[in-house]
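Bit of a strange request maybe. I'm writing a small parser for C-alpha cell strings and I need a real example to test against, not something I typed by hand. Could someone generate the C-alpha cells for this chain?
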Amino acid sequence: MTLECKNVWEHISGYLDKQLDPKLLTDIEKHLENCEVCSAILDSTRNILVLTADNRIYELPVGYSERLHARLEKAIRETAESRSDST
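Reply from user aminoacidic:
Good idea to test on real output. This should exercise your parser:
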C-alpha cells in the first residue's frame, strides 16, 4: 500500500514510539525513503522531543509564533480544500 503524506503524519508519534503494526511500519519506512518532506517532519519531531525532554529554557525567535500559526492555518485550509475537491 502506498501512503500519502497526511497518513504518515498521523502516525509519526506511533512510529517514534514503535507502537505500529509491522505492516504499517513497513509502509511508513518505504514512504520515508522517498519523501523528503515527511523525513524532515520526522527529524523535526524527534528534535522537538529531545528539546522538550531537556530542562533548559529556549526563547523563540522573534515572529516565530506568528509564522507558525500562519503555516498551520494554511495547511488546515489546504487540507480542507483538497478534501472538498475529492468529493
